């Protein structure tokens, strides 16, 4: 009798949880928002973050960049691959039962696992940094260009790695989250340990470090290690940084300040990009070859179709 009662109580709790989430979602979408001000704010938020307001995602004033950076700026635009990612995210967000399941599992495992690992376990939260065309535009390479080795640091589920991989004979990746590492192995990428990629005995033609600098405990040390791991004359680092720059590291589900703290000066996107180029990258032994502004997109949930951060994406050349 006690066992049956426990099962019944658990089933009621799960049902109550799902119904509560469903009600909250309906309220968030505006159906039950009675305040005209709240409705206006909701419409304004949707228009600013949707594809129709995406011009802001790529806006830059080159004259506000430091003088050496201005010739390196590449203007990007919303292209077909980006639109396709947004459409897929919107479609997934509308799958209510799946979103309820994801929300329930996230709540269940959040005391034990990081959000990244939960997303890897559920196969959700894919990222989009650049399209294949935008990648080639930054590196100034034609579609048929090929090189030997690519290393993607902190590759996540490998979605962005897949954009770059057709240009390389060998593709290597690192990832600290075990569920995300399983996703990379399923894509047949060679997985390296976080302390292994610097000691393989060979160098890389391109290393990508995408939105890792603000989530790394020792970002300057990482940049110096990357410089030594690149081919000296032809190697390039493709680096993305979310701006405004707010460095923190996830430790057991909590966020802490990194031991090497990069304080990026400036209020605007252009000022922070200039600071990164003139202070952080030069100190680590890099020169900026190209830079662009792109949206850092992530698949959404039952509340938002997708999430957007501002990215600065650089192509860096190691200095002699």
Automatic annotation (TrEMBL):
CDD domains recorded for this chain? AdoMet_MTases (cd02440)
Please give the SUPFAM superfamilies that the UniProt record associates with this protein. Answer: S-adenosyl-L-methionine-dependent methyltransferases
- Record field: transmembrane: 6-24
Q: Which GO terms describe its molecular function?
A: protein-L-histidine N-pros-methyltransferase activity
> Is the keyword Oxidoreductase assigned to this protein?
no
Point out the signal peptide segment.
Answer: none
Keywords (A to Z) from UniProt: Membrane, Transmembrane, Transmembrane helix
Keyword flag Electron transport: no
Q: Which protein, by its recorded name, is this?
A: Methyltransferase 9, His-X-His N1-histidine
What is the protein's species of origin? Answer: Lepisosteus oculatus
